[in-house]
Specification:
The complex is a heterodimer of chains A (325) and B (281). Chain A has 325 residues and is an all-alpha fold. Chain A contains 13 helices and two strands. Chain B is mainly alpha-helical and 281 residues long. Chain B has one domain (33-280): MetI-like fold, CATH 1.10.3720.10. Chain B has helices at 2-12, 15-37, 69-105, 107-122, 125-135, 140-166, 170-177, 182-190, 195-218, 229-235, 245-272. In chain B, helix 3 (69-105) packs parallel to helix 11. The radius of gyration of chain B is 22 Å and the shape is elongated. The chains are: A mainly alpha (325), B mainly alpha (281). At the A-B interface, helix 1, helix 6, helix 7, helix 11 and helix 12 of A face helix 4, helix 5, helix 9, helix 10 and helix 11 of B.
């Protein structure tokens, strides 16, 4: 019962944050320099006076601010995210079409970076102070400092241009008829470079976090107690250290899912990956603010959902968690 | 003086931090004096397009429009460091005020401040930065503001934590009894005791700010009047097949700068927080 209450509470919190983001979006349009109708219309639509009139009507831009806010919120709630004048399509359609490729890319990178990062972090911590620890630490430091788009570009230059191993852009080969399994392989080959680009930076983050977390747990009393009891080293590592050291890393990784989505803007731009990040880049180029704000809202919703899932999983895995907090 | 010597003695023990400091000094020197050595505008055509690197005239080559890559990197150093430092200063200022007020007063004020902080930590920060700069038109002001807006929550949480423990200490109670104003207690009594962790997280934040700035410029959201490393890479990304050097060298500059700042940050952490130092581990 207590757990259900906790989950309900978290769910409510997520909804409140999402509502806050809707209000923030509303304020951004109003605070932007110039006529809000022109901002909504984007550069392409701003010259069309009739369209501007229609927008003013639809969003009640001539009415008091709180009425406008209400109109905006009810539009969003009915999944009306506005219209992309530039692409001549409703924003919601664009978002629905572009979200799955991004989830594939970021999801792959999330799993890869967590697995490799935690493994490297554990290896470094077990050999703390020795050369393999130093090597892992240096590698992590480097990837922690490299801009994603640069890693991506250099990857394209090395693996696509020079070696010709992997495709450099898109999510599938154009102009080739592929069926079933072949298509899957083709898509997977396209996924390798962008996913690895996004992985390397986060791998570094998780490796550093895991190493620090392991070293902290290693020095705690319950580990010393286990050792004093004569528990075998391997068992201490698996049962006592790993479990307690990795849980916070996984939790923080879940909480920071937004960084992967942010990173996907530059990575998708480099690799012409047809996802939501690429959509954001196109929207920036075309000053298509409805689309841009739609991307912001959807990525925020994804982050909130992942946070919620992390919270729930954490409450199931760690019995010590205070459900009331 | 003795404190400074002690600080340096501790800092020096971290070899990586010493290397980082040396690299950082070099980059600062390039930013300060480089434009004197390369006085030409980085936007001007300096030679034929796509000149390969390692020639006497163009040591790092030229780009699509015949602009000299070395000149661009030298001028871009100023922009990257400037935006990194200023954005961090603004973020730290904002974070310190919110965190200090929340931690000192507690109760309702703390609740409101922490909900706000959590909100800003939940939203995907880079996406938000892109939205802010795009809507408020790209420029040095909007870039600094956007980076500061997405960076302050971490400082606020840190400062709040410090204040929560410090405000129960005797010297603070003594000030309260003496009838000092809250402002005096916060800024004159407590804040100086919380400076070390703020400096450490600030130095790491400069590194992140430079990465964010370069990503924004890469996407075409840089200040249109300022040559920056991210812009150079973004402008030549479509010709990476023909001219790898146009994006390779600016990226290397970003990597070295961010790496140096991270190393310095870790060194400062070791030197300023001896309790947390990773010594003997």
């Amino acid at each position: 019962m207590e757990r259900l209450e906790y989950i309900a509470q978290r769910l409510l919190k997520g909804v409140v944050v999402l509502l806050g983001i809707v209000v923030l979006n509303f304020l951004l349009i109003r605070l932007a320099p110039g006529d809000p109708a022109a901002v909504m219309a984007g550069e392409a639509g701003a010259s069309d006076e009739l369209f501007l009139q229609q927008l003013r009507q639809q969003f009640g831009l001539d009415r008091p601010l709180w009425e406008q806010l209400w109109a905006y919120i009810s539009n969003i709630l009915s999944f009306d995210f506005g219209f992309s004048y530039r692409q001549q399509r409703p924003v919601i359609d664009l978002l629905a079409e572009r979200l799955p490729p991004t989830l594939l890319l970021t999801g792959t990178a999330f799993v890869l970076s967590l697995v490799t990062g935690v493994t490297l972090g554990v290896m470094a911590a077990r050999r703390a102070g020795r050369w393999s620890d130093s090597a892992i630490t240096v590698v992590a430091l480097f990837f922690y400092a490299t801009p994603l788009f640069w890693v991506g570009l250099m990857g394209v230059f090395l693996f696509s241009v020079t070696l010709g191993w992997l495709p450099a852009f898109g999510m599938g080969s154009v102009g080739v008829k592929l069926t079933g399994f072949e298509r899957l392989v083709d898509a997977a080959r396209h996924l390798v470079l962008p996913a690895l680009t996004l992985t390397l930076f986060h791998m570094a983050v998780y490796a550093r976090m895991t190493r620090a977390s392991m070293l902290e747990v290693r020095d705690q009393d319950f580990v010393r107690t286990a050792r004093a009891k004569g528990v075998a080293e391997g068992r201490i590592l698996r049962r006592h250290v790993l479990r307690n050291a990795i849980l916070p890393v996984v939790t923080i990784a879940g909480m920071k899912a937004g960084y992967l989505l942010g990173g996907s803007i530059v990575v998708e731009t480099v690799f012409a990956w047809p996802g939501i990040g690429r959509l954001a880049y196109e929207a920036v180029l075309q000053r298509d603010y409805n689309v841009l704000l739609g991307v912001f809202l959807v990525t925020s919703a994804v982050v909130i959902a992942v946070n919620l899932a992390t919270d729930i999983v954490y409450s199931l895995v760690d019995p010590r968690i205070e459900l009331g907090a | 003086m003795a404190a400074l010597a002690e600080f340096w003695r501790r800092y020096r023990r971290n070899k990586g931090a010493v290397v980082g400091l040396a690299v950082l000094c070099l980059i600062l020197a390039v930013a300060a004096f480089g434009p004197l050595v390369y006085p030409d505008s980085p936007w001007d055509m300096a030679g034929a397009p796509f000149q390969p690197p390692f020639s006497a005239a163009h040591p790092l080559g030229t780009d699509t429009l015949g602009r000299d890559v070395a000149t661009g990197i030298v001028h871009g150093a100023r922009v990257s460091l400037l935006i990194g430092f200023v954005a961090t200063l603004v973020a730290v200022g904002l974070g310190v005020v919110v965190g200090a007020v929340a931690g000192y007063f507690g109760g309702r004020i703390d609740d409101v401040a922490m909900r706000l902080t959590e909100f800003f930590q939940t939203i995907p920060s880079f996406v938000f930065a892109v939205v802010l700069v795009a809507i408020f038109t790209p420029g040095i002001g909007s870039i600094v503001t956007a980076i500061a807006v997405v960076s302050w929550p971490a400082v606020a949480r840190l400062v709040r934590g410090e204040f929560l423990t410090l405000r129960t200490r005797e010297f603070v109670q003594a000030s309260v009894v003496l009838g000092r104003s809250a402002r005096h207690i916060i800024f004159v009594e407590i804040l100086p005791n919380a400076v070390s962790p703020i400096i450490v997280s600030g130095s790491l934040m400069v590194a992140t700010a430079i990465l964010v700035e370069s990503s924004l410029s890469f996407l075409g959201l840089g200040d249109p009047n300022m040559m920056s490393w991210g812009y150079m890479i973004g402008a030549s990304r479509s010709v990476v097949r023909l001219a790898w050097w146009c994006s390779f060298f600016p990226g290397l500059a970003i990597l070295l700068t961010v790496l140096a700042l991270n190393l310095v940050g870790e060194g400062l952490s070791d030197a300023l927080n001896p309790r947390l130092s990773r010594e003997g581990r």
